[in-house]
Fold:
Amino acid sequence: VPLISVLLYLALGNRQGLESAAQVSAQQGAPHQLSKEQIESMVVRLKQRLESTPDDGVGWLTLARTYNAIGRYGEAAAAFAKAEAKFPQDAQLLADYADTLAMTQGQRLEGRPEILIQRALKADANNLKALALAGTVEFEKRDFGKAIEYWRQILPLLSADSEMGNSVRASIQEAQD
Structure:
């Protein structure tokens, strides 16, 4: 979906294009197969477009998520920074940005990622990713009680038999041991 979104965003240059891309992709049931060269070309075109329209927060967010999806975390972090400037209270954006920054620093959440996670939770106390990351921050600090508190907040937000619920319960069990 992110790659299809980039393609439509490049063609249409607006939020409706992003939403249409997700709808088309969902209706078709499977993502299109794009070559690495096609993906790279779309990313380059989007970046060029954003250089001429730097106030396009949705474009920066799309670029950030695309870079993230292809493992270019440093570039994703830079694009997230530009998107954050446009949407400073978007909890999901803040959580995704924190996660990406952690990838650039050896999968560690201390420092700036931790600050972003707290901002995300302030914007939306029920953001699943922010809660999961906040629990991981506390787990890394060896404050297992606080980690468990964050992770327990996730469980009522999920269906009982969800894969994520099972993962959260396993994390809680690990913190208790």
